[in-house]
Amino acid sequence: MKQLIPLERIAPEAVEGLLDAAFGTDRKGRTAYRMRDGVEALPGLSFAAVDGAGHLMGSIQCWPVALEEADGTRHGLVLVGPVAVLPELQGAGIGKAMMQASIDAADSGLADALMMIGDPEYYGRFWGFTADGTGAWEIPGPVERRRLLARIKRPGGVPVYGRIIPDPAHVALAA
Question: What's this model's pTM, rounded to 2 decimal places?
Answer without folding.
Answer: 0.93
